[in-house]
Amino acid sequence: MKSIQSRLFLMLLIFIILPYFLTVFFIYGYTKKLVEQHELEVSRNQMEKASNELEQYFEDLVGLPYVTYRNPDLFRIFEDGFQDSIYFNPITVKNSIETFYLMRNEIRQIRFYIDKSKESFTVYNAMVSTRKYQPDLVKESSIKKLYHSHSKYLIEPPHPIENYNDAAIVPQSDNTVVLTIHHKVMDVLSNKFLGIITLDIDLKTYARLCNSLVQNDKESVLLVNSENQVMYASDRHLIGKPVPTNLLTSIQQSGVKTGKEIILSRTLSGPLRQWKLVKITPEQVIFHDVRQTAYTNILVGIGVGFLGLLMIGIISYMITRPIKLLSRKVQSIEAGNMDVPFNDNGQDEIGHLEKHIKEMMNRINLHIAREYKLEIENRNNQLRALKSQVNPHFLFNALQTIGAVALRFNSPNVYGLVTSLSKMMRYSIRANQWVLVREEVDYIKTYLSLQVERFGNEWTYTIHLDETILDLTIPSMTLQPLVENFFKHCYEEGFYDAQLNIYGEIQGELLCLVVENNGSSITFEELQILRKNIYTKPNEGSYSAEHIGLKNIHDRLVLNYGIKAGLEIDTNQGQGFIVRLMIPVESKFASQKLEIM
């Protein structure tokens, strides 16, 4: 039972503290949603701008080799080779190549492959290498892929710069990571393949465009090609590698929130068709200020709540102290103290209650005294009635005398039956006592011996109980009514071949005693009605008196052991009748066994 003081605290929590914190959480959630929408809108605008700049930048890079078509001297090399062109001027060609190299600062290296002569040469730091015969160049994976495609160019993922012709102009110490663009040179009129121009581009320029999306060091950005390879990433360890599996699904959508991160992705077009620009922003970056405000409000709320609890505690103590004193007096009465002093001088509601409780106790004490005298008189009347009854010991002595006469006239069977009946009468007097399971079984065997004499040996029975169970204690006359039911509802109804079985086992903390037969049974509907009658409380409902013995056994077990104990019945799938007695092992066996011993 909760005290009034605890109820006051609970009311404060429900009507003051809880609404305050709910308001804080609501405001926090609403503000968080607005901030998220604002940041997402800003990020989308930034990504749109960065995407346009990236598309334009790569449009320029991809279109750079088209200058070759506007330079007759350079284009004739692809058409005729170095030796066959009658217009070949080495100085003019060298100047054209150097000019082509110097057109963009981010160009680190250019390779020219002439398909007619199967030769290639490179340009590095505005210096032209010697030509090298490379007939298998078109068999390289990237060149082969471009050669057999309808596309004019192919962009490879970033990789360390490569010395294509093993030229001396490329130092071994140069490990710059570059992006490679292969451009296919074709004869416009005949659509004949003339060669390949390969550009190695430094990442700095387009990395700067990507990094424009990053506002602080906790955010990150990725540029992913159509084959899910990282073309650029804030984390340089990811550049040139496949997209991590945990991000691959998320970047397919725009504005995806996964865990504690917000992932925005945008699909590019133009020369970067099907590429994706991805921005990853930790949630804590966006909502840092919002959380700080919420934490401040929560701390203020905790302080206000603490002061409120302190105030209500003082007030509730002053109000509830008289109620607690009155409650202790009532508890003392419950414990049996009927002379508790009450203060009937109070002028408030508590004083009014104490005055009326005092008057009520005086009336109760008078009533108890009167009832006590009536009870004593009733006991005396019962004693006198008992004295008028036949002394049971006289019956025992009389049965023993009859047994002696039977022996004298050489009738041992009669003597055995009389002795069995005597034992049963002596045992039945202990109907409200605790006995060993062994004693209950002996009584049942005695009872069954009389039934064997009565009905003959046409029916059979078995009793299987180990020594551990036989030494436990149970209320007397617990199993006997079930055995008696066997003859009443089974054997006497014509099931002469039925067998009676009694066995038991300890299942965890419960002793399970079973009495079953394979003769008469009942329908499922009758079983449900019987269960309802047995489990109905003694003072509730109405039930049939036909199976009152089963109900009495169940009620006795519950009364002695509690709700864990009881009686269970079943029909063994319509092939007989089973009664199980469930008795807690540790509840009363130990104490009752000591009393019996």
Full CATH superfamily name of one domain = PAS domain
**Which regions are unreliable across 5 or more consecutive residues at pLDDT < 50?**
384-390, 588-597
Helical residues, percent: 40-55%
Total strands: 19
Taken from the alpha-carbon principal axes, the silhouette is: elongated
Class by helix and strand content?
Answer: alpha+beta
CATH topology of one domain: Beta-Lactamase
GO cellular component, one term: plasma membrane
Membrane topology: Multi-pass membrane protein
GO molecular function: phosphorelay sensor kinase activity
Keywords: Cell membrane, Kinase, Membrane, Phosphoprotein, Transferase, Transmembrane, Transmembrane helix
